[in-house]
């Protein structure tokens, strides 16, 4: 780091004044319309009802048959789709984002794709090429959506690598993952070799893969390279989603290859971030090792820190296969792990300035309190290299309080046509069952604010 960078971004001193905890109460709802609040309350109540989440797909098919696709579509648009999705067309997405920006929030676009294809049409190279075009469009849209004048590097988007390379139902990712974990595999499959193959576009020979799989790997690398190239040109940072433990090592290898190519601090990196799931027992250790390795290699480092969304499936798979459960034993252990990872990353940001970026992707009020308090103690600016992330339609009382206080807050926004997004939403709701059931506090705050308005009481 040069002395100018040290002065500008080096370990900062504690901020002036005293730290005040943010109030996550119904106060922030005064920014929202009554109809919006009523819809949020209705949808969150419905989503906390287990049979609706468990049988969501069957209920949707049943309502289509009974009411016809027009009426059932209108009902969904007025409820779940309207609550959690930005819209279908570019204009609808822009409208939704403008509303968020007026509330001090930023967009984090996420293309909804299913990682378990349910039709033959979704296998084969053509499906990934179609997804590539959707991702490239998402990059352009992410750039176009930011406020003017555009703060370069403040546009972020989520990237699901399994939309561009073979999904779980094929053995490809699993094979790659088990190969990576074998001793000696690193000489053949390492980030440097993959990064070179991405740059040159030349075929990569890997002994564990057959000809068709090698071809697919090369095509996947080309797709990833094209998305990263476009993102860099458009000043959009790519936040790669973490998925299941049986494919994460393969995904992380691909992210490491992208990072080598695109995370130079001289070029304003990190442009490619990885996601770390605190519900896994080894996450703190991995995070520490990866942060150190990036620093030693002179690379910038970007992290989206989450608790993890696939708990039920992870445990079911380990029970089925008789393998060791890699997840934390209970909710408290996950919380502790999240807190340790958060502390590690905030210290890293404080020590390494602009070359280390962090998104605190959580709805948990304790985690958000911890982050804001430690940011203040470590002198990390509110709108610098640390930001917060929450899902569209969830925990608005937390997002709005953060946004109003001047922190950088992103809402993860899926968009797309009803037919494609509803199955995706139902699957997400099934994975996040515990979160939706835990949204009781948000429901209580929403109903408190609605009653206040109904009775005409002052805020
Ligand atoms: C912007 C954004 C991006 C995201 N990206 C990803 C991603 O790439 N990959 C991904 O996996 N998830 C992702 N998630 C989802 C995330 O992992 C969590 O599922 C979700 O945010 C709920 O956690 P929380 O911290 O918000 O809230 P909380 O309600 O405090 O935590 C709920 C979480 O705690 C954990 N938990 C609950 N019960 C137990 C238990 N009995 N034992 C152990 N742990 C338990 C689970 O991880 C559960 O999801 C993302 C979330 C956001 C907001």
Automatic annotation (TrEMBL):
Cofactors that this protein relies on: FAD
GO biological process, one term: L-proline catabolic process to L-glutamate
Pfam families membership: Pro_dh (PF01619)
SUPFAM superfamilies (UniProt xref): FAD-linked oxidoreductase
EC number: 1.5.5.2
GO cellular component terms, A-Z: mitochondrion
The entry's keywords: FAD, Flavoprotein, Oxidoreductase, Proline metabolism
All copies of domain Proline dehydrogenase, residue ranges: 199-437
One function term, GO molecular function aspect: FAD binding
Catalytic reaction annotation: L-proline + a quinone = (S)-1-pyrroline-5-carboxylate + a quinol + H(+); trans-4-hydroxy-L-proline + a quinone = (3R,5S)-1-pyrroline-3-hydroxy-5-carboxylate + a quinol + H(+)
Enzyme class: oxidoreductase
Domain of life: Eukaryota
Assigned protein family: Belongs to the proline oxidase family.
Function summary: Converts proline to delta-1-pyrroline-5-carboxylate.
Protein name, per record: Proline dehydrogenase
Organism per entry: Jaculus jaculus
Lineage: Eukaryota, Metazoa, Chordata, Craniata, Vertebrata
């Amino acid at each position: 780091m040069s002395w100018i960078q040290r002065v500008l971004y080096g370990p900062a001193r504690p901020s002036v004044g005293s730290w005040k905890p943010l109030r996550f109460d119904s106060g922030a709802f005064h920014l929202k319309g009554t109809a919006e609040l009523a819809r949020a309350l209705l949808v969150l109540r419905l989503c906390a009802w287990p049979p609706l989440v468990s049988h969501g797909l069957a209920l949707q098919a049943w309502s289509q048959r009974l009411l016809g696709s027009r009426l059932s579509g209108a009902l969904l648009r007025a409820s779940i789709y309207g609550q959690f999705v930005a819209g279908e067309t570019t204009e609808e997405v822009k409208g939704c984002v403008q509303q968020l920006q007026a509330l001090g929030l930023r967009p984090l676009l996420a293309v909804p794709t299913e990682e378990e294809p349910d039709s033959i049409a979704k296998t084969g190279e053509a499906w990934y090429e179609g997804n590539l075009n959707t991702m490239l469009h998402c990059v352009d849209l992410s750039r176009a959506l930011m406020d003017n004048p555009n703060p370069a590097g403040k546009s972020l988007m989520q990237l699901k690598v399994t939309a561009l390379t073979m999904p779980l139902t094929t053995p490809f990712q699993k094979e790659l993952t088990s190969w990576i974990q074998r001793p000696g595999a690193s000489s053949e499959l390492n980030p440097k070799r993959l990064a070179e193959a991405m740059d040159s576009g030349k075929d990569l020979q890997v002994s564990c893969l057959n000809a068709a799989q090698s071809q697919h790997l090369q095509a996947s690398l080309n797709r990833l390279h094209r998305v990263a190239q476009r993102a860099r040109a458009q000043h959009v940072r790519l936040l790669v989603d973490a998925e299941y433990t049986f494919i994460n090592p393969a995904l992380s290898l691909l992210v490491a290859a992208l990072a080598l190519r695109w995370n130079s601090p001289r070029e304003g990196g990190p442009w490619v971030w990885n996601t770390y799931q605190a519900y896994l027992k080894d996450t703190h250790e991995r995070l520490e090792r990866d942060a150190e390795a990036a620093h030693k290699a002179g690379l910038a480092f970007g992290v989206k820190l989450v608790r993890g969304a696939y708990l039920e499936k992870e445990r079911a798979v380990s029970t089925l296969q008789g393998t060791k459960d890699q997840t934390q034993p209970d909710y408290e252990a996950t919380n502790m792990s999240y807190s340790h990872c958060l502390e590690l990353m905030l210290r890293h940001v404080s020590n390494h300035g602009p070359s280390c970026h962090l998104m605190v992707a959580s709805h948990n009020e304790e985690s958000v309190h911890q982050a804001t308090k430690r940011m203040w103690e470590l002198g990390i600016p509110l709108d610098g290299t640390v930001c917060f992330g929450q899902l569209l339609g969830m925990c608005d009382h937390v997002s709005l309080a953060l946004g109003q206080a001047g922190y950088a807050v992103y809402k993860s926004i899926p968009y797309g046509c009803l037919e494609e997004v509803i199955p995706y939403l139902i699957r997400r709701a099934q994975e996040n069952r515990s979160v939706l059931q835990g949204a009781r506090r948000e429901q209580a705050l929403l109903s408190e604010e609605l009653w206040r308005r109904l009775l005409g009481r002052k805020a």
